[in-house]
Amino acid sequence: MNEHGRLEVRELKPGFGVEVLNFDVRNADAEDQKELVHLFDRHGALLLRDQDLKDPDDMMAFAEIFGEPEDHTQAQFTLPDYPKIYLLSNRNEKKHPTGAHYSGVGWHTDYSFKEKPVKQTMVYGLEVPPEGGDTLFADLCAAYNALPEKRKQELGELVLHHSYKHFMATREHIRKPLSKQEELENPDVFHPLIRTHPANGRKALWVSTGTVKEIVGMPNPQGLELIGELVDFATQEEFVLRHKWRVGDVITWDNRCTLHTGSLFDDSKYHRHAYRLWIKGDRPY
């Protein structure tokens, strides 16, 4: 037993992220599951190494500890018979990609273009490059806490205009115009710049790139320049955790209080293959 409960843990970065040690999530009982949820809500990111979750049913069972898995906007790379599991991969089968290769590069928070963005993302590494391909996380609560009080008040009045159509038209990789049906299914939404964590009331500088089209009431380019400045502030080294992948890692992070980005690797030499799942969230406030 320790201050975190009966699970053995260590901090990944002071005040942000924890690794659960010497634990097989397939054996988690009700008390273990409750503690995992508490650790997740409190620390923003949760890492478990050496997990055997290749069986999709095991991966689904782990995800359901935290809530109801979410659907994916782009379903072409979901696992057959498991529509909630999305494949991240640069492998090809019969000259066709088996998964999304460049997904997740650029600081962002997942599904922010939805009225109810996903609260949580989890990725399980089945095959990882020996170098490159790290995932980085920015602690948006720490970034908010570092702001002067006057700046907190100013930013607390701002609302961001998020647009999936804008994102798909301007993203660096895999741009594409939306079909009329995709536009109908993904209307623009408006979310606060400063977000409150529903589990514990912590405030986060909930800024993002990609989906943000404008700050409401502020003309561009000034609005987007401010977004860029805030992302730069929130992703300073003091707020960032870098995760170097090993096969068997499962890491899950809280989209309500973090930004994340993938990083590139030499895809002419190495392969990556991973499961990704999302957990449904609620409306930001």
Description:
- By secondary structure, the chain is an alpha+beta fold.
- It has a single domain (9-279), classed as 4-Layer Sandwich (Double-stranded beta-helix).
- It is built from 7 helices and 18 strands.
- Strands 1-2-3-16-8-18-5-4 form an 8-stranded mixed β-sheet, with helices on one face.
- The radius of gyration is 19 Å and the shape is globular.
Write the layout of secondary structure elements.
Elements: E1 9-13, E2 16-20, H1 30-43, E3 45-48, H2 56-64, E4 78-79, E5 82-89, E6 92-93, E7 96-97, E8 120-127, E9 135-139, H3 140-145, H4 149-155, E10 159-162, H5 164-170, H6 180-185, E11 189-192, E12 194-196, E13 203-205, E14 212-215, H7 222-234, E15 240-243, E16 250-254, E17 258-262, E18 273-279
Parallel strand pairs: 2-3
Antiparallel strand pairs: 1-2, 3-16, 4-5, 5-18, 6-7, 8-16, 8-18, 9-15, 9-17, 10-11, 10-14, 12-13
Nutshell version of this structure?
This protein has a single domain, classed as Double-stranded beta-helix, CATH 3.60.130. The chain is 22% helix and 28% strand.
Keywords for this structure?
285 residues, globular, alpha+beta, Double-stranded beta-helix, 3-stranded antiparallel sheet, 8-stranded mixed sheet
